[in-house]
Amino acid sequence: METPVIFETHAHYDDEAFEQxxxxxxxxxxxxxxxxxxxxxxxxxxxxxxxELMEKYPFxxxxxxxxxxxxxxxxxxxxxxxxRLCHLPKAVAIGEIGLDYYWHKxxxxxxxxxxxxxxxxxxxxxxxxxFMVHSRDAAKDTFDLIAARGKGQxxxxxxxxxxxxxxxxxxxxxxxxGLGGVVTFKNAKKVKETARQIPLERIxxxxxxxxxxxxxxxxxxxxxxxxxxVAQEIADLKGISKEEVIAxxxxxxxxxxxxx
Length: 260
Ligand code: NI
Fold this sequence. Notes:
binds nickel (II) ion; eight-stranded parallel β-sheet; alpha/beta; about 40% helix
C-alpha cells in the first residue's frame, strides 16, 4: 500500500490572494504531505483559471460550477461551458454550487440561486459526477432541495456549519461532510460535535483556501499546508490518530471523485 497523503478537497488557488506566490506555494505542497488538491470554481472567471491550474499541476483536479454569489450572472452558455469542462479527464466534481442567503437576502435572489443550483445538480446527475455544496444561512432550503432532487446522487456539503443532526441526515442520504478550519475554532461547538458524531468514512478534509484559516492562523490567508491542523483536531475529537484521519479521508475522497 502506498503511504497515505493528504487529500485537500476544496481550495481556490485561482484567487487573487495567491497572485504573488501561487507557483511557489503549489510546488511546496508535496513537501507538506499534500498529495491531491481539488480546485473549486467559484466565479464564472474561475472556470478558465481552474482548467489552467488543472493542466499545469498533475496533483490538481477541478470542480466546475458556479457559486450562488454569481447565480444571477449565469446564462445558458455558462451551463454549456460547465458541461464541456466536466468532460476533461481531471474534472472530478461539479462545484461549488448551492445557496447563500447570508449575502443575498432578497426572495428573488433566492429563487435564482435555487434554479441554478438545481440546473447544476442536474448536470452532475447526467455526467455521473459528485457535486460540492456551498450553503450559508440556507440550511432548510439546501437540505430540502437535496433530499427532494438529489436522490441517488453523491456529493459533499463543503465547509459544513449546520447542526450535527442535519449532518447525520446528509450521511443517511449518502452525502459526505467537508470539514475545514472552522472545526479548530474554540467556539465552533456544533462543528466539533459533527466531527465527533459522523463516521470518519463520510468526512473529507478541506481548507477553502484562501479563506477559513484554522487556529492558530485564524483571519490570515489560508493554504493547504494548514490542513494538518484540521486533521489533528478531528483526530483529537474522535480519539484516533492523525495518520488514521489522513489515510481514511484520502480513501474517501478518492472513492467519491473516482480517482484511481
Ligand atoms: Ni469554497
